[in-house]
Amino acid sequence: MKKALSILSILFMTLSYGQEVKQIPQINVSGEGKVKVIPDEATIEVTVETKGNNAKDVKKQNDIKIEAALKFIKKMNLAPSDFKTQRVALNPQYDYEKKKHNYNATQTIEILLKDLSKYDELMEGLVDAGINRIDNVTFQSSKLVQYQSEARKLAIKEAKLKAEDYVSVIGQKVGRAITISDNTQNYYPQPRYMAMKTMEMADMSVPRETLAVGEINITANVTVSFILE
Predict the structure, then answer these.
(1) PANTHER family recorded for this chain (predicted)?
(2) How distant is the alpha carbon of residue 185 from its chain centre?
(3) Matching CATH number, 22-39+142-229, of 2.170.150.70, 3.40.1490.10, 3.30.110.170, 3.30.420.280
(4) What is the CATH number assigned to the segment(s) 41-140?
(5) SS3 of 190, please?
(6) Closest CA to 140 of 32, 53, 216, 76
(7) 25-71 residue pLDDT tens
(8) Whole-structure pTM value
């Protein structure tokens, strides 16, 4: 009985290998959707950096300036959830020429500015309060999720249009999609902005423009496989 089952199993496997695998006619195409948006908010990272040869004094000076910066931010009526301390550090640095340690203290504040018309006032006030580093300014949209959805839909439409263009010359039609791969890479463009003028150089009676916000591109990339009919 076992011998007979073994023979049947071998016969079934032989028949299976002998059968031709049916290929499904299909086409693979890529699509890109792009939505251009004017940013309506910015994420700003600013830092107070102080140096000296006494760790306690360096930290104290740094704390005083950060306290002044935070008071100014609150005076700008920003919501408490729109600013936070991002990083705090106090590091020894050895001076090999003088053969002694110096200390470097830094504190970084991250600010979400939802009204770009306040940018100049905010940055000037922060510098006056003691901020001496602008680490990063990233422009973005408060409606990012909505625009990402629009970009994905445009990407699918472009993929289907490409497929229809290809098969139009061979007498076939594009059928249903069988696979969709999202190849989108999140990328947040850095801003283009002009250097902020000092209070001494600026003519306060003349409106100033220190930002060139421009547009940001919200992009989606997909790969789609369609059945050919």
Answers:
(1) PERIPLASMIC IMMUNOGENIC PROTEIN, SLR1258 PROTEIN
(2) 9
(3) 3.30.110.170
(4) 3.30.70.2970
(5) coil
(6) 216
(7) 999 999 999 999 999 999 999 999 999 999 999 999 999 999 999 99
(8) 0.70
